[in-house]
Design goal:
- The protein is α+β, with helices and mostly antiparallel strands and about 290 residues long.
- It has two domains: about 140 residues, MutM-like, N-terminal (N-terminal domain of MutM-like DNA repair proteins), CATH 3.20.190.10; about 140 residues, Helicase, Ruva Protein, domain 3, CATH 1.10.8.50.
- About 30% of the residues lie in helices and about 20% in strands.
- It contains nine helices and ten strands.
- The strands form three sheets. The protein has a four-stranded antiparallel β-sheet with strand order 1-6-7-5, with no helix packed on it. A four-stranded antiparallel β-sheet has the order 2-3-4-8, covered by helices on one side.
- A hairpin with a 2-residue loop joins strand 2 and strand 3.
- The chain is elongated, with a radius of gyration of 21 Å.
- The two termini are about 35 Å apart.
- Its EC number is 3.2.2.23, 4.2.99.18.
- GO terms for molecular function: 8-oxo-7,8-dihydroguanine DNA N-glycosylase activity; class I DNA-(apurinic or apyrimidinic site) endonuclease activity; damaged DNA binding; zinc ion binding.
- Belongs to the FPG family.
């Protein structure tokens, strides 16, 4: 799933290539992806892309005051095409293509654009056409952006205070903190040397400061690694920069212990016992049930 660093990199990528260009057409192939009907998606035709913004994991193209907003969800991605002149319409259900945005030809005669695709059977990619980004429920309910100047250690402490939620779940909750998903929450907790099962409200002032530093540093370093990269290369860059997430059974680069995993219904977390849990493996409830 694209998270804050990747979505911000996609925003930068589109700022360089799409801003100032006129939208020729928006083709919706996966009709379940379009979550709004007013304004109609056809109203984007002829408008100019004037800006690109990010809200948590939402990507927003400002088109002369109308906003084309997408959330890529778990299996979605944005694929840039330098020329869509010869791209033929795709029949629904025949490919991973969900939406195609065609831009008007430039002075070179090329008509670039981008395609939103979604892999897998769970179709959760979402597209909205709205007059105000706050009209998107997921944006209206977002928590603070962890890279904003007012996201301080004190602000984080106020968020954590009294919470009985495990810190892993809290970091992933978009209504609490915007933009962090399963992968970067694992990375943040490893950098903070903190168990994913630790109760958020139990953190001391020093632990809160350490967690804040890990959040900001982890996200900024990931953004810096992907800065200037083509959209097609961002997934591989994300994977290469992860230290624990997705690395079950590998050696922790920090301490040399073996990275462990805890599995859930539709996801899993990875952690290092030595770095995060005092050397004790966490109970994997799924495996415990299988062993009964």
């Amino acid at each position: 799933m694209p998270e804050l660093p990747e979505v911000e990199s996609l925003a930068e990528f589109l700022r360089e290539r799409a801003v100032g260009r006129v939208i020729a057409a928006v083709e919706v192939v996966a009709f379940q992806a379009l979550k709004t009907v007013d304004p109609p998606v056809s109203s984007l035709g002829g408008l100019t892309v004037t800006g690109v913004a990010r809200y948590g994991k939402f990507l927003d193209l400002d088109c002369d005051g109308l906003h084309f907003i997408t959330h890529l969800a778990r299996g979605g991605w944005l694929r840039w095409r330098d020329d869509l002149t010869g791209a033929r319409p795709v029949r629904p259900g025949k490919s991973p293509l969900a939406v195609r945005v065609r831009l008007a030809p430039g002075d070179d005669g090329l008509a670039p654009g981008f395609e939103l695709t979604e892999a897998g059977t769970q179709k959760r990619l979402a597209v909205y056409v709205v007059r105000d980004p706050a009209d998107v429920p997921g944006i209206a309910s977002l928590g603070p952006d962890p890279l904003a100047s007012d996201f301080t250690a004190e602000a984080l402490g106020a968020i954590l205070g009294g919470s009985r939620t495990q810190i892993k779940g809290l970091l992933r909750d978009q209504k609490v903190i915007a933009g962090i998903g399963n992968a970067y929450s694992d990375e943040v907790l490893h950098a903070a040397r903190m168990s994913p099962f630790k109760i958020a409200g139990s953190l001391t002032e020093d632990e809160t400061a350490r967690l804040h530093e890990a959040i900001v540093t982890t996200l900024r370093e990931a953004m810096e690694r992907s800065r200037g990269m083509a959209a097609k290369d961002l997934k591989a860059e994300k994977r290469s920069g992860l230290r624990v997430h997705g690395r079950t059974g590998e050696t922790c680069a920090t301490c040399g212990d073996t990275i462990r995993e805890v599995s859930f219904a539709d996801s899993s977390l990875q952690y290092c016992p030595t770095c995060q849990t005092g050397g004790k493996p966490l109970a994997d409830r799924r495996m415990s049930r299988l062993l009964k």
